[in-house]
Specification:
- With 484 residues, the protein is α/β, with parallel strands linked by helices.
- The chain has helices at residues 4-14, 29-42, 87-94, 137-144, 161-166, 201-211, 233-237, 259-274, 290-305, 323-331, 336-349, 354-375, 401-405, 412-417, 446-459; strands spanning 25-27, 56-60, 98-103, 150-155, 170-173, 193-198, 246-249, 278-281, 381-385, 421-428, 434-441.
- It has one domain: Amidase signature (AS) enzymes (Alpha-Beta Complex), CATH 3.90.1300.10.
- Helix 1 packs antiparallel against helix 2 (29-42), helix 9 packs across helix 11 and helix 9 (290-305) crosses helix 12 (354-375).
Length: 484
């Protein structure tokens, strides 16, 4: 067995390596050593044992951790130190986890590549010349590189699932309201959710069982009774199999995927059929509008949420001759992608355009929800690829923002509908890079999508994941004192 001290110390050493992967981590140096010693002692005392005792965890740098800078990878918040813990951080610590660092991200979680961070791009550990995906780029890279066995990201339109796919990991977006957003810096409040990234479905399920739960500090947190109480229904679901499960496949929606991605996805479908599942053709007529709807709704909410970063209340202040100039100089620190989304959102909410754009987008969003509801009358989950392509080269990101936004084609609909969804590896595509298999479930039915992920791992023998890559990591369940 590996002690809590040994595992968390190893994570700290790996974060000091100095390459573009390790640069995804800003270590929480001040409290880590004492926290490691505390949980290592607790691991030897059954009365204080938690489910994640001693497990080193990295959290995305838009989640507040007391006494630690929370920058959202933006110059606007450079140096701002969080005065409190996010709800998910509280729950991790209550189960004995050690927060060893904050992960890089696309600035304010706006991006799909990890390249819009004000502090530099993150590399994909499987091929450092390629992007790790985004916006939870550092979270995925830290797990794929073996720096930590578990990381938290935020997912607004695919920002946990897409980097998980690009890095050969499992990433899960819970049902909207399942996990509290308290302490998460808001991008688009009706879409944001915190989710785990791990090397396999079991560790992902364990992390979800820790961070999920009602929080009265978040008005959108849903108080849903769970059958298992404090136990791990989701962990058990990973090994329950998929015999008799109906998997919906929206075949008309798959035309946007590259041939190598489609081939790996089809192999994943075959593995599930071999495990006893049944394929059902379904139609989702409005999901083709998902990208347009998302980039109106999300940018409108971002325009409102980011108005608070004005140099008066949070972060950096660049003084001018008067208040207006101070606003202008301070907000000039935003990166190009953030400015683009603020401008688009402000335009969509402006007089004369609100009804034509924002209201219409919300109506189509309702149609997307209804499409899923009708589809779930015929199936239990819906499967697509996670992204239309594998990870591309750093620096080769499309300069046309719309072309880049289309990379979110398959992840956005679940976010707009508020449904649980995950990405699990299903094979390798072009250049030997991982392909993600995307599964969407009914609201609050995370157990079924985790069962599908578990069946994929069994049916494909883990060949598509990074679990076989010798990077020296220790799985969550290998930590002494970790309850599994």
């Amino acid at each position: 067995m590996t002690s809590a001290f040994e595992l968390a110390a190893r994570a700290g050493d790996d974060a000091d390596r100095g390459d573009a992967v390790a640069a995804s981590i800003d270590r929480a140096r001040a409290d880590t050593h004492s926290a490691i010693l505390h949980v290592d002692a607790a691991a030897k005392t059954t009365a204080t044992r938690g489910r994640l005792v001693g497990v080193p965890v990295v959290v995305k740098d838009n989640l507040c951790v007391t006494g630690t800078p929370t920058t959202c990878a933006s110059r606007v918040l450079e140096g701002w130190v969080a005065p409190y813990d996010a709800h998910v951080v509280e729950r991790l610590r209550a189960e004995g986890a050690v927060i060893v660092g904050k992960a890089n991200l696309d600035e304010f979680a706006m991006g799909s590549t990890g390249e819009t961070s004000a502090f530099g791009a993150t590399a994909n550990p499987l091929d450092p010349s390629r992007v790790p995906g985004g916006s939870s780029s550092g979270s995925a890279a830290a797990v794929a590189a073996g720096i930590v066995p578990l990381a938290l990201g935020s997912d607004t339109g695919g920002s946990v699932r897409q980097p998980a796919a690009f890095c050969g990991l499992v990433g899960l977006k819970p049902t909207y309201g399942r996990v509290s957003r308290y302490g998460l810096v808001a991008y688009a409040s009706s879409l944001d959710q915190v989710g785990p990234i791990a090397r396999d479905a079991r560790d992902c399920a364990l992390a979800l069982s820790v961070i999920a739960g009602h929080d009265p500090r978040d008005a959108t947190s849903v108080d849903v009774a769970r059958e298992d109480g404090a136990n791990d229904e989701w962990v058990a679901a990973v090994s329950r199999g998929v015999r008799g499960l109906r998997i919906g496949v929206p075949r008309a929606f798959l035309e946007g995927a590259d041939p190598d991605v489609r081939a790996a996805f089809d192999e994943g479908l075959r593995a599930l059929v071999d495990a006893g599942a049944t394929l059902v053709d379904v139609e989702l007529p409005h999901v083709k509008l998902g990208v347009s709807v998302y980039y109106l709704v999300a940018t409108a909410e971002a325009s409102s949420n980011l108005a608070r970063f004005d140099g008066v209340r949070f972060g950096v202040r660049v003084s001018g001759k008067d208040l207006v100039e101070t606003y202008e100089r301070t907000r000039a620190l935003f990166g190009a992608e953030v400015k683009r989304r603020i401008l688009l959102g402000t335009y969509a909410l402006s007089a004369g355009y609100y009804d034509a754009y924002y209201v219409r987008a919300q109506k189509v969003r309702t149609h997307i929800r209804e499409d899923f509801a009708r589809a779930f009358e015929r199936c239990d989950v819906i499967a697509t690829p996670t992204a239309p392509s594998v990870a591309w080269k750093l620096g080769e990101t499309p300069t046309d923002p719309v072309a880049l936004w289309l990379q979110d084609l398959y992840t956005l609909p679940a976010s707009l509908a508020g449904l649980p969804a995950l990405s699990a590896p299903c094979g390798l595509g072009a250049h030997g890079m991982p392909v993600g298999f995307h599964v969407t479930g009914r609201a609050f039915d995370e157990a079924t999508i985790l069962a599908v992920a578990g069946a994929l791992e069994s049916g494909l023998s883990g060949a598509a994941s990074v679990g076989s890559v010798p990077v020296g990591s220790v799985p969550v369940g290998s930590v002494s004192g970790g309850g599994r």
